[in-house]
Amino acid sequence: MSKVKSSETVKVVVRCRPLNRKDAAGVTGTPGGRGGIIEMDVDRGQVVLRNPRALPGEPQKTFTFDSVYDASSRQRDLYDETVRPLIHSVLDGFNGTIFAYGQTGTGKTYTMQGEWLEPERRGVIPNAFEHVFTQIARSTADRQYLVRASYLEIYREEIRDLLDPNPPHTLELRESPESGVYVRDLTSCVCKSVKEIQELMNVGNQVRSVGATDMNEHSSRSHTLFLITVECSQTGPDGRQHIRVGRLNLVDLAGSERQAKTGVHGERLKEAAKINLSLSALGNVISALADGRGGHVPYRDSKLTRLLQDSLGGNAKTVMVATLGPAPQHYEETLTTLRYANRTKNIQNQPRVNEDPKDALLREFQKEIARLRAQLSHREGRGKHRKEEGWDGEGDEEGEEEVEKERKLQEERLEEEKEAIREDGSLLAVEKQRLLGENEIMMGDLRKERDTTEQLTAKYKVHTHIYREESLGVFLSLPPPLLSCPAHLPFF
Ligand SMILES: Nc1ncnc2c1ncn2[C@@H]1O[C@H](COP(=O)(O)OP(=O)(O)OP(=O)(O)O)[C@@H](O)[C@H]1O
Ligand SMILES: [Mg+2]
């Protein structure tokens, strides 16, 4: 099923957000505290953390990462340097994960989503949408792509489908040798453009759990995972079609929080308890993997760690964006985030190209098209007129018109015959009745034939809804029965 096996570490980058009004109280009176307690050396990928209550002579703590992004960094910088290569790998058939990790209010959602309406402030997810579809549009004509998306959240340790308006209470996790850990019955929608995939994200964002706390007005109260599956079919050197499947997990975690700081009560407090529990399970998984001794890894301790099983220590290329706030009053939390980020750098993954998996939907889809095409050719007797290769449905409309014309002619002939029988004075009444009856049966057969062909043609068109963006990328859209997708979504 797969090849190109190699090992690589999880890539870890750190981002610090600017000081905000809430931080200001803590910064006032901090000696030299222009940027709070964090200094970054972008060229060296270093973060220097200063303890605001340090004893005289206590050294500052320095950490080095693959890249660091300071408070003046732009969304685009992070995307181009850190995310872009990951998206290319996904299009080549690797699994890829990017997850944002850090204390509440430090910029995880800002980094992953950003401000959709301001191009400069768009985050990883909208930029990834653009990128995926632009790359597909630029790819060579011999490649066919099928892009699907799902969106879920883990809220109080339950998995919810954000694209299903009437979801069952909670979805279950399953595991298979082909796709690793997956969510059973999760909605998966085919997307043919940036607009369509954005609409999906909007649908999900409207129902994801967000609430206000003292530390963040729009605090994520759940972990979210937006999954994009890209299947690509291409003719190999052996002349056969080969399918590669890349899965991209875009993960926006909820942040760790202390009740004393967030001031949460009631439901918010219960949410916080579950958030902290699953984040500590994630911390344990990171620690177990990072020590490199190959001991037990407690993936099963939370839904989050099970879902991230392939991303941490498995078949995926993974990027962690650890987010920090610069305020001195959060020194301990910032140090904890940096320590976990530092440990994560040691995690070894084994990413490989997922080639020709049995469950590729593209193959199922191609088989269905071939079957419908054969049926249509047979029905309309136009098999020999149609080119076997490159039949893209365009010349087909001409063919359909011809067949329709022929059918009309036959109908007219039958109508004329009917008239002639009626007006023929030499026929006995009984004979006339018999001939008119035969004429009616022939007319009925003709109509039935037309209806069946129309149905087949319509089905075929749904299957081969092929369009080309710009010039080359070819998309195939899958018919509804093969995928679960809520009917209210706009593109079926
Ligand atoms: N790099 C940044 N530049 C400008 N503003 C930022 C940046 N990072 C975060 N912010 C702002 O800080 C606030 C909190 O950010 P955000 O909601 O992304 O935090 P979070 O880590 O997702 O928190 P939570 O864990 O509570 O969901 C938001 O108003 C956001 O716009
Ligand atoms: Mg958030």
Automatic annotation (TrEMBL):
<keyword id="KW-0505">Motor protein</keyword>
<dbReference type="GO" id="GO:0008017">
    <property type="term" value="F:microtubule binding"/>
</dbReference>
<feature type="compositionally biased region" description="Acidic residues">
    <location>
        <begin position="391"/>
        <end position="403"/>
    </location>
</feature>
<dbReference type="GO" id="GO:0005874">
    <property type="term" value="C:microtubule"/>
</dbReference>
<dbReference type="GO" id="GO:0005737">
    <property type="term" value="C:cytoplasm"/>
</dbReference>
<feature type="domain" description="Kinesin motor">
    <location>
        <begin position="9"/>
        <end position="347"/>
    </location>
</feature>
<keyword id="KW-0963">Cytoplasm</keyword>
<keyword id="KW-0175">Coiled coil</keyword>
<dbReference type="Pfam" id="PF00225">
    <property type="entry name" value="Kinesin"/>
</dbReference>
<keyword id="KW-0493">Microtubule</keyword>
<dbReference type="InterPro" id="IPR019821">
    <property type="entry name" value="Kinesin_motor_CS"/>
</dbReference>
<dbReference type="InterPro" id="IPR027417">
    <property type="entry name" value="P-loop_NTPase"/>
</dbReference>
<dbReference type="GO" id="GO:0003777">
    <property type="term" value="F:microtubule motor activity"/>
</dbReference>
<feature type="region of interest" description="Disordered">
    <location>
        <begin position="374"/>
        <end position="420"/>
    </location>
</feature>
<keyword id="KW-0067">ATP-binding</keyword>
<dbReference type="InterPro" id="IPR001752">
    <property type="entry name" value="Kinesin_motor_dom"/>
</dbReference>
<dbReference type="GO" id="GO:0000278">
    <property type="term" value="P:mitotic cell cycle"/>
</dbReference>
<dbReference type="InterPro" id="IPR027640">
    <property type="entry name" value="Kinesin-like_fam"/>
</dbReference>
<keyword id="KW-0206">Cytoskeleton</keyword>
<feature type="binding site">
    <location>
        <begin position="102"/>
        <end position="109"/>
    </location>
    <ligand>
        <name>ATP</name>
    </ligand>
</feature>
<dbReference type="GO" id="GO:0005871">
    <property type="term" value="C:kinesin complex"/>
</dbReference>
<feature type="compositionally biased region" description="Basic and acidic residues">
    <location>
        <begin position="404"/>
        <end position="420"/>
    </location>
</feature>
<dbReference type="GO" id="GO:0007018">
    <property type="term" value="P:microtubule-based movement"/>
</dbReference>
<dbReference type="GO" id="GO:0060271">
    <property type="term" value="P:cilium assembly"/>
</dbReference>
<keyword id="KW-0547">Nucleotide-binding</keyword>
<protein>
    <recommendedName>
        <fullName>Kinesin-like protein</fullName>
    </recommendedName>
</protein>
<dbReference type="GO" id="GO:0005524">
    <property type="term" value="F:ATP binding"/>
</dbReference>
<dbReference type="InterPro" id="IPR036961">
    <property type="entry name" value="Kinesin_motor_dom_sf"/>
</dbReference>
<comment type="similarity">
    <text>Belongs to the TRAFAC class myosin-kinesin ATPase superfamily. Kinesin family.</text>
</comment>
